[in-house]
Amino acid sequence: AGHSFSATFPVVNPYQNLLVSGSDAVVARIDNAGTSADLSVTQTDTPDPVAAFNQITYTVTVTNNGPNIATGVRLTDVVSQGPSLQSFVPSQGTCAQDFSTFDTDIGCNLGTLGSGASATVTIGVLPFSEGTVVNTARVSGNLSDANTANNVALESTAVVTPSLSINDVMVREGNTGTTNAV
Fold first, then answer.
1. CA atoms within 13 A on the CB side of 144
2. Is the pTM of this model over 0.90?
3. 57 has which bridge partners?
């Protein structure tokens, strides 16, 4: 038992499914059953590098490597401070932005994944300055996961400022006509 300040705390069959005040009580049950599902998460970014004020698209893929059906599959995605979250679209389930932190966080309830099945979440962010944007994705579920090494994926995207330079040019001026400098 305890309490949480998160509006996207993972729940299964909740008595109350919305955060009512600044924090809510939590009662958890730990199930040590012999069932397991190896959930893994991977992600890609496009484009990389990206110019400031152009959108980065992260494609996050959650896969159930089995052996059993995974229930209560949850993805938490955190984009480093600075960029603006533009969109998040899951292939199944629902996602919501978590405003309780200063990062750009989303929580997705992806539901159930059969053994060998996958779900994706496409996330769009807009960086405003040069540097590196880091996206961290974490997956969890209701069943035990013997291989937690593949439950977190980080993707770093370089944000650059476009530059323009003009070299010196000399043109001999004539007495008639037009002469172009290239």
1. 8
2. no
3. 46, 124
